[in-house]
Design brief:
Length: 371
C-alpha cells in the first residue's frame, strides 16, 4: 500500500497541472463508461429520522423530543406512488442506524406497528415497495450483518454504506465521530465484507472534509482504493464534499476547495479499477459543470419530488439545465437504476427482481424509457 500512498500523494499534491490530471481521468472514464453521465431518478423514503448515533455534522437525525419518528405504512405507500408517477426508478430508504437501541420511544412505535426492530420494519417496507411499484428499493440503514444482507437481497437489488473516513482521529474528543458507536471504519468494512459474502452490490464512499490533515486525506483515498480492489461487490463510490450545515456543531468547519476536490476526483478515477462508478452529488457543488470532465461518470440520485434529506439546504439541479450542461461536454445524461449494468446478473440479484429489472432495461442495462 506504501507505493499506492506515494502515487496518490504525488497525484493530488505534486506538480502536475490539474488540467492534465483531469484529461487522464476523463480518458479513463470514457474508456469504460463511454459518453454517459448517469443519474438515478429517485424518491427519498426517510423511514426514520431517529438514530442510535449522533454525528456532529448530521442534520438528518432527530431525537424523539425533536420530532424524530418513523413513517407509517401509508406514508411509505404514498411517497412510493408519487415517485412511480414521476418516473423514478429508485426508492432510497434513508434512515438512522437501529434507533430502538437508544430510544424507548422508537421501540414503542415499532411495537405499535407490529415490529420488533427497525430491520424488520425496513425489510417489510422495502418488500411493500418492491412488490407494488415500478421502483427498486435501495437502503442505507447503517451497519448490516450477513443475515440482514440476506434479507435485503430478497427485496432490493443493491444497498449502501459510506465509510466516510478511515481516520481514527475523528473519534477523539471534539471530533465529528467522537462517542459514536457505528462510525468505526472497521465495522463499516465488515458490513461490506458481509455484502461480499452474499454477492450484494454496494455503494460506499468518503465524506471529504471531516479530516484536517494532508496525511489523513491521502490515507483515505489510498485505503478506499485498496478496499475496492479487495471487495468485488463495490459497484460505486461517492466522493461527497463536506458542506457545513447551519444548525450543526461543525457549522464553521472549512469546506474543501474546488481545485483540491477536482484533483482528488481525478486521482481516484486514475487509480481505482475502471468499472467502478464514480459519483459526486450534483447539489453540493456551486457549479457542477466544473466536474463533468473530471473522471466522474455519475451524479447519483436526483429526486423530482423530495428534498435531499441528508443535505436539506442544497437543492437538486434542474434536469433540463443539467442536460444542457452535460450535452455541452459532448456527453449524454442518462437515467440508471440503483444497480449498475455490470452487476445485473443472475447470481447477484434475486430471481424476481432480476426479472423485474429485465422488463425495463435496454441491452446496455439502462432504463428503456430514458428521455
Ligand atoms: S449515523 Fe448517520 S443518521 Fe445517525 S447521526 Fe450519524 S450521520 Fe446521522
Amino acid at each position: 500500500m506504501m507505493s499506492l500512498y506515494k502515487n496518490i500523494e504525488n497525484s493530488i499534491f505534486g506538480g502536475e497541472p490539474t488540467s492534465e490530471l483531469l484529461e487522464k481521468a476523463f480518458e479513463k472514464k470514457t474508456s469504460f463508461f463511454g459518453n454517459k453521465i448517469t443519474y438515478s431518478p429517485k424518491v427519498f423514503i426517510p423511514l426514520t429520522t431517529m438514530c442510535r448515533d449522533k454525528c456532529s455534522y448530521c442534520t438528518f437525525v432527530k431525537s424523539p423530543s425533536e420530532g424524530g419518528t418513523y413513517l407509517n405504512e401509508d406514508d411509505v405507500r404514498s411517497i412510493a406512488a408519487a415517485g412511480e408517477k414521476a418516473g423514478c426508478y429508485e426508492a432510497l430508504f434513508t434512515l438512522g442506524d437501529k434507533p430502538e437501541e437508544r430510544w424507548g420511544f422508537a421501540r414503542t412505535q415499532l411495537n405499535n406497528y407490529g415490529f420488533d426492530s427497525t430491520h424488520e420494519y425496513l425489510v417489510h417496507s422495502m418488500k411493500l415497495v418492491n412488490s407494488n411499484f415500478q421502483l427498486f428499493p435501495h437502503a442505507n440503514p447503517g451497519l448490516m450483518s450477513a443475515e440482514e444482507i440476506i434479507d435485503f437481497k430478497k427485496v432490493s437489488p443493491s444497498g449502501g454504506i459510506m465509510i466516510e473516513s478511515f481516520s481514527k482521529n475523528l473519534f477523539t474528543k471534539g471530533m465529528p465521530h467522537f462517542a459514536t458507536t457505528t462510525k468505526s471504519p472497521d465495522l463499516r468494512i465488515s458490513t461490506l465484507e458481509n455484502a461480499k459474502e452474499n454477492k450484494y452490490p454496494m455503494t460506499t464512499g468518503l465524506l471529504l472534509g471531516l479530516t484536517t490533515t494532508k496525511d489523513e486525506l491521502i490515507e483515505d483515498i489510498t485505503k478506499l482504493i485498496h478496499l475496492i480492489e479487495n471487495n468485488f461487490t463495490i459497484q460505486e463510490i461517492i466522493l461527497q464534499n463536506f458542506r457545513a450545515k447551519v444548525n450543526t456543531q461543525m457549522k464553521f468547519n472549512a469546506e474543501i476547495t474546488n481545485d483540491l476536490f477536482l484533483r482528488i476526483i481525478a486521482t481516484t478515477r486514475i487509480y481505482a479499477p475502471k468499472h467502478i462508478s464514480l459519483q459526486v452529488p450534483p447539489n453540493l457543488s456551486p457549479d457542477i459543470n466544473k466536474y463533468l470532465k473530471s473522471g466522474i461518470n455519475d451524479l447519483g440520485g436526483i429526486s423530482p419530488l423530495t428534498i435531499d434529506w441528508v443535505n436539506p439546504d442544497h437543492l437538486w439541479p434542474n434536469i433540463e439545465n443539467l442536460n444542457e450542461s452535460v450535452n455541452s461536454t459532448d456527453q449524454k445524461l442518462t437515467k440508471r437504476l440503483p444497480v449498475y449494468p455490470e452487476f445485473i446478473k443472475k447470481d447477484w440479484i434475486n430471481e424476481e427482481i432480476f426479472e423485474k429489472i429485465n422488463n425495463i432495461i435496454d441491452t446496455d442495462g439502462y432504463p428503456l424509457i430514458n428521455e
